[in-house]
């Protein structure tokens, strides 16, 4: 498999390092969008054990699945042959990148479920995500970022991570807590609670863009981000790949992710503090 290459101006990569997120226009042509859309359609019909559905029946829905490319060939092709690897290599300033994860998100019209403000910290080291819009997504429904938050030097966790009460947690909060490890007293010294950004939006410089199909957002994993529900009349579908370089390691609190993958039958052999390696995380050199 040969990954399609694209070139990103150096000043755009500089702005990613400065701001934590950028928008790249039209780098994915219709063939890639059609491939991802077909994969999502098939995945919803035949979900994997990692499939998630958030929201109330009859009131819109928020769907996602993780590492589904093992069963959905369209995702395998998209991840390994689309321009994603070339984008990641340039944005991480490396010749070789590893595919950490394939995932996707669909919010149907009427869903009120908000993706809470969070960042991705199960892996430590160079780590970026590429979100490709499959539909027109205006600012009112798109992903938002706190500019420069990747440079704060702190690891943030959602409220669910620190929850000790008996009240049931919202499923989406449980999801983001579950994939960032389990709480112990030592963790409380390491992690900060995600700020209440939504209630204090004026205190932050928030970045967002109107997206057309084929546009993509690239952001550093430690950039705080979140998105609203879908008040539009059409689905908002995003195909996502996440990438690391060969120096990135599994974070100390990442053991629960490995346990879940092993329990679901994934061929994975990762250890805390060790580099990301193995068949589930293929290495690509998009520029040869």
Rounded average pLDDT: 88
Q: Percent range for helical residues?
A: 10-25%
Q: How many domains, as an integer?
A: 1
CATH topology: Jelly Rolls
Distance between the termini: 12 Å
Q: Give the CATH H-level superfamily.
A: q2cbj1_9rhob like domain
Q: Any idea what the CATH architecture is?
A: Sandwich
- List the helices and strands in order: HEHEEHHEEEEEEHHHEEEEEEHE
Largest sheet: 8 strands, antiparallel
**Secondary-structure class:** alpha+beta
Total strands: 16
Uncertain spans: 164-170, 181-185
What amount of the residues lies in strands? 15-25%
Protein name: Phytanoyl-CoA dioxygenase family protein
GO molecular function, one term: 2-oxoglutarate-dependent dioxygenase activity
Keywords: Dioxygenase, Oxidoreductase
Topology:
Elements: H1 10-19, E1 21-24, H2 30-45, E2 52-54, E3 62-66, H3 73-81, H4 84-91, E4 97-107, E5 115-118, E6 123-124, E7 127-133, E8 144-146, E9 155-157, H5 159-162, H6 171-178, H7 185-190, E10 191-193, E11 206-207, E12 216-220, E13 225-227, E14 236-244, E15 249-250, H8 255-263, E16 283-284
Helix pairs in contact: 2-3
GO molecular function, one term: iron ion binding
Protein name: Phytanoyl-CoA dioxygenase family protein
Organism: Segnochrobactrum spirostomi
């Amino acid at each position: 498999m040969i990954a399609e290459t694209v070139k990103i101006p150096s000043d755009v990569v500089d702005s990613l390092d400065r701001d934590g997120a950028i928008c790249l226009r039209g780098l994915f042509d219709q063939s890639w969008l059609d491939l991802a859309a077909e994969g999502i359609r098939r995945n919803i019909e035949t979900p994997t054990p990692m499939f998630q559905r958030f929201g109330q029946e009859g009131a819109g829905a928020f769907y996602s699945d993780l590492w589904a490319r093992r069963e959905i060939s369209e995702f395998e092709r998209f991840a390994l042959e689309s321009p994603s690897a070339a984008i990641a290599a340039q944005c991480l300033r490396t010749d070789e990148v590893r595919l950490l994860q394939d995932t996707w998100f669909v919010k149907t019209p009427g869903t009120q479920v908000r993706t809470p403000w969070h960042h991705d910290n199960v892996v430590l080291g160079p780590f970026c995500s590429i979100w490709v819009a499959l539909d027109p997504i205006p600012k009112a429904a798109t992903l938002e970022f706190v500019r420069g938050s990747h440079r704060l030097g702190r690891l943030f966790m959602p409220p669910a991570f620190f929850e000790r009460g008996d009240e049931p947690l919202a499923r989406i909060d449980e999801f983001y807590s579950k994939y960032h490890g389990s709480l112990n007293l030592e963790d409380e010294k390491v992690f900060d609670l995600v700020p209440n950004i939504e209630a204090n939006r004026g205190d932050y410089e928030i970045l967002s863009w109107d997206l057309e199909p084929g546009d993509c957002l690239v952001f550093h994993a430690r950039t705080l981000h979140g998105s609203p529900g879908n008040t539009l009349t059409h689905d908002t579908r995003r195909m996502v790949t996440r990438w690391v370089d060969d120096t990135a390691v599994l974070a100390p609190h990442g053991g629960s992710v490995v346990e879940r993958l092993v329990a679901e039958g994934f061929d994975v052999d990762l250890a805390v503090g060790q580099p990301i390696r193995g068949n589930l995380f293929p290495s690509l050199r998009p520029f040869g």
